[in-house]
């Protein structure tokens, strides 16, 4: 047995739901705790526990990330009416990701995990496309209500300085309908821009930014202006020196161009656009499980997670005692990403090295032909590849890791 590596500062662990909760435990038991001596501040975000605590546990978890700096989160159910019934919940609580992101602010960077035996569905893509998703505002912090009868929707803005309130008629409803009100903050958009420029400079990749500013002439146009101003003021020279570019275009045009590009850029997107596009990129690169995701807060806090959900369908099979072949790559990379960041912040290179080795072991396992069902159909050399079940995949990675650590 090798000597355990000491992780200096406490990591914030947020457990989750369904199949990802099952895999989370296996990852900890087989890939982490045998090798690491680490303290975790544990928050159980299981939907039932969120319900029992009136969602206090989610807020507590976000505060713990603010305290320690690095959190690692499992996927969680965002309850809808079906889930309220399924788990007998008091109500359809908000998305924990939404709550945590709103508290930490910041940008979510999502990057595909590339392996050499799976080619992206888009044949021109040669390099990973990283998505930089603004993690504040828009529909994730909105106000919505049904309109049951005819009536007026007015917006009242009351200045805090005692100035005159502004009342604007938005819509005179003559029949039932629906209402949605979105907002954003200049400061949050500015830190989104800074996070993207800084990430791209670090990685030496171009930044593409796209919004629908032709239609949304105030809201989306503000994003464009804030990005432009920040770029001109603080990044233009640095980008030039590094040989990288900042490029703004309408989102429709960006989507069309991305499909013909060779990849390798950071694509900055508003909250909703980033939510949707990151799933497209992940799935085109193999599977939703082949994507890393990190929330970078302007205050220096980091939250690592899987980009996919709780893999509900597989969980129901698992509950029936059937074999599953769920892919734990994104969960493993959430842990390795968090450990690497912790190691960098604590100046403990041995922790950074372990994080690298864990990722290398996971990638080498797939490249060696051992993989879960989601990847099998896409991988080259189909005849020699072997499909393993959920536990078998983690076990195979553990074996590869064990060998690497003894080399
Ligand atoms: P999902 O969990 O992302 O799964 C959708 C489908 O993608 C699965 O049925 C599976 O396809 C495939 N897939 C996703 N992850 C996989 C993995 N690790 N290994 C193998 N295949 C994988 O989305 P969902 O089923 O629509 O949502 C389930 C729950 O997750 C919802 O309650 C939602 O609220 C929650 N959610 C949470 C987060 C988060 O916490 N970050 C994000 C999104 C959704 P096949 O069935 O074809 O095998
Ligand atoms: Mg999504």
Layout of helices and strands, plus pairs?
Elements: E1 5-6, E2 11-15, H1 18-32, E3 36-37, E4 40-44, H2 47-52, H3 56-68, E5 70-73, H4 81-86, H5 96-104, E6 107-112, E7 130-134, E8 143-147, E9 151-157, E10 166-173, E11 177-181, H6 186-203, E12 207-211, H7 219-242, E13 246-250, H8 251-258, E14 266-269, H9 271-284, E15 291-296, E16 302-306, H10 312-319, H11 329-346, H12 349-367, E17 370-371, H13 373-376, E18 386-387, H14 390-406
Parallel strand pairs: 1-3, 2-4, 2-5, 5-16, 7-14, 12-13, 12-14, 17-18
Antiparallel strand pairs: 6-7, 6-15, 8-11, 9-10, 15-16
Helix pairs in contact: 1-10, 1-14, 3-5, 6-7, 11-12, 12-14
The protein binds NADP nicotinamide-adenine-dinucleotide phosphate (NAP) and magnesium ion.
The site of magnesium ion (MG) has 3 residues, from α9.
Instruction: Evaluate the radius of gyration.
Output: 22 Å
Mean pLDDT: 95
**Distinct small molecules bound, one entry per kind:** NADP nicotinamide-adenine-dinucleotide phosphate, magnesium ion
Which structural category do the helix and sheet elements fall into? alpha/beta
Q: Could you name the CATH topology of the largest domain?
A: Isopropylmalate Dehydrogenase
Distance between the termini: 13 Å
Total strand segments: 18
CATH architecture call of the largest domain: 3-Layer(aba) Sandwich
Q: With helices defined by DSSP (H or I, 4 residues minimum), what is the helix count?
A: 14
- Tell the overall outline: globular
Oligomerization category of the chains in this entry: single chain
């Amino acid at each position: 047995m090798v000597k355990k590596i000491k992780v200096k500062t406490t990591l914030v662990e947020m457990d989750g739901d369904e199949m990802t909760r099952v895999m989370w435990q296996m990852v900890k038991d087989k890939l982490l705790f045998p090798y690491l001596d680490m303290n975790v501040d544990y928050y159980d975000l299981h939907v039932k526990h969120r319900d029992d605590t009136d969602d206090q546990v989610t807020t507590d978890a976000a505060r713990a990330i603010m305290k320690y700096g690095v959190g690692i989160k499992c996927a969680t159910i965002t309850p809808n009416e079906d889930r309220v019934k399924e788990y007998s919940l008091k109500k359809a609580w908000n998305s924990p990701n939404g709550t945590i992101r709103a508290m930490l602010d910041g940008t979510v960077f999502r990057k595909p995990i590339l392996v050499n035996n799976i080619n992206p569905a888009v044949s021109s893509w040669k390099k990973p496309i990283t998505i930089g998703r603004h993690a504040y505002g828009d529909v994730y912090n909105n106000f919505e209500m049904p309109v049951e009868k005819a009536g007026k929707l007015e917006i009242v803005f009351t200045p805090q300085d005692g100035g005159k309130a502004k009342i604007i008629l938005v819509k005179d409803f003559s029949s039932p309908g629906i209402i949605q009100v979105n907002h954003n903050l200049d400061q949050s958009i500015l830190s989104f821009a800074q996070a993207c420029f800084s990430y791209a400079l670090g990685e030496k990749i171009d930044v593409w930014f796209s919004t629908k500013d032709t239609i949304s002439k105030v809201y989306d146009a503000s994003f464009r202006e804030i990005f432009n101003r920040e770029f001109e003021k603080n990044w233009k020279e640095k980008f030039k020196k590094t040989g990288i570019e900042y490029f703004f275009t309408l989102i429709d045009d960006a989507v069309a161009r991305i499909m013909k590009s060779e990849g390798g850029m950071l694509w900055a997107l508003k909250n909703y656009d980033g939510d949707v596009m990151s799933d497209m990129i992940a799935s085109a690169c193999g599977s939703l499980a082949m994507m890393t995701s990190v929330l970078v807060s302007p205050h220096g806090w980091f939250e690592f997670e899987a980009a996919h959900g709780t893999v509900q369908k597989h969980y129901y099979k698992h509950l029936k005692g059937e074999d599953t072949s769920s892919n734990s790559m994104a969960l493993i990379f959430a842990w390795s990403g968090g450990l690497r960041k912790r190691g960098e912040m604590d100046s403990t290179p041995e922790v950074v090295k372990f994080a690298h080795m864990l990722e290398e072991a996971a990638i080498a396992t797939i490249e060696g032909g051992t993989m879960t069902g989601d990847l099998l159909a896409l991988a080259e050399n189909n005849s020699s590849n072997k499909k393993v079940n959920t536990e078998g995949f983690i076990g195979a990675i553990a074996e590869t890791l064990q060998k690497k650590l003894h080399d």
